[in-house]
Fold this protein.
Amino acid sequence: MSATEKFFVVELPRGQSLGHKPGQFVQVSVCGVGEAPISISSSPSRSNGKFEMCVRKVGDVTSALHRMKEGDQIGVRGPFGRGFPIEQFEGRDILIAAGGLALAPVRSVINQVLDNRKKYGRFIILYGAKNPAELLFKEEREEWKRREDVEYLETVDRGTPDWTGNVGVITTLFPKISVNPRNTIAVAEGPPVMYRFVIMELLGKGIPEDQIWVSLERRMKCGVGKCGHCQIDHFYCCQHGPSFNYAEIKGVMEAI
């Protein structure tokens, strides 16, 4: 994947299905180390007794996961949280805006749409990262570029001598697209600093507030709304989210 990210395929016992929705997460535990919330990167349409995660090495649990080998066992609780209401997106144009590592969780939405392509209208994916080395899922991005039924644009904040694509933050991609605002569902995922500016672009395109969705994966710990680490005002991200409609949270302090 990259210098700090690693891709995992988790096989569940007896071929059972995780039963998740795009946008949900699981609690992953490593014996003797601890537990951490990890986004589900695969779509329900591709479950087949397995699910996928893209894990950044940032702490004890994720470091332990990076040291694991094929066949090692982990603990899994979940899925938890509210996913995206993908069934309500059917018949609409879909616009995805993802920044950095956030392509991993929003990939569950992307593949769900691709696997049921006839149920949706136009499909636009905008993706940005700090530099070319941090762009994830190279083979899949190349496939999106080749597909006639996907409009894919990517950018990096800082280019390299061999980079020939767009240079600039993700908002520099918005002038390159046009949308039918009343028929467009937008899903934005990325670092907190990204949301405010991306939402401004989406609203500037005329997309209604209740057709904009974001994911607030913040400080989640227990997964069941008991520890309070992920509380934003009266919302618990692990229970009421992490997928939120912008109309729900636009006035909530610290949400965006």
